[in-house]
Amino acid sequence: MAPSRVNVLGVGVHAINLQSAVEILGQAVAARRKGYVCVTGVHGVSEAQEDPEFRAILNGALLNTPDGMPMVWMGKIAGFKEMSRVYGPDLLIEICRASEEKEWRHFFYGGAPGTAESLVATLQSRFPRLQVVGTHTPPFRALTPEEYQGLQTQVSASQPDFFWVGLSTPKQERFMSATIDSLDATVMLGIGAAFDLVSGKVRQSPRWIQRSGFEWLYRLIQEPRRLWKRYLKNNPLFLGRIFLQLTHLRRYSLDNK
Predict the structure, then answer these.
(1) Which CATH code fits 5-199?
(2) Where are the domains of the chain?
(3) pLDDT of res. 167
(4) Per-residue pLDDT tens for 56-111?
(5) CB 60 within 8 A of CB 177
(6) Inter-axis angle of helices 171-179 and 52-59, to 10 degrees?
(7) What is the DSSP string of 201-234?
(8) 197: helix, coil or strand?
(9) b/e map of 93-127 (b: 16 or more CB within 10 Å)?
(10) Nearest of 140, 70, 151, 72 to residue 111 by alpha carbon
């Protein structure tokens, strides 16, 4: 049975926690049930407000995890007491931990040149029996038909259970939605900055900051030139829209209308 969803401005965020997410994805792999996973916070929900196609991609995910504390708080308000944050780096680590016993196979796609390889080295030093069957660093632009055919060949030869995508939102979600049926992988997971965070290229915020809901401020201080527009525009708009939803001054539907 699919987990319940919390309506966050018309985006259905699944009412799950880290343990239940790993269990659900393990079941999907065992059943060879193809699907993609989005890890969604304020940025993703905000992008979906002006883009119905992107909102439909989020709502069509096998799992749409609560990647930010505001998603969790909305779940608590809706009565889902066991719901907690399913953060991209944590999801990666816990699935890799389970993989040593389950013998799940992994492919890593994305990041700057060398990032995927650095990530793999970090993960395999922590989980020596982790099976990594491929990495691919794409160009910043869209793949050409020839390049995509080469990726298809590489993935078909390796047949990963988990295909990790380290691009930005909404680029990674669009990529997964467009390719889930044509790549020979069972579950695709868009975890964005987790490639840089887990590999150590970018420093993660302390846990207390993550739990406080102010991780965005920590990341803004680290990367102001890249992130200032995202946070200083999206965060106030998100708060205003949530106020309208919670006070029933505006209705947000999950049917993408």
Answers:
(1) 3.40.50
(2) 5-199
(3) 92
(4) 999 999 999 999 899 999 999 999 999 999 999 999 999 999 999 999 999 999 98
(5) yes
(6) 60
(7) SSPPPPHHHHHHT-HHHHHHHHSHHHHHHHHHHH
(8) helix
(9) bbbbeebeeeebbbbbbbbeeebbebbbeebeeeb
(10) 140
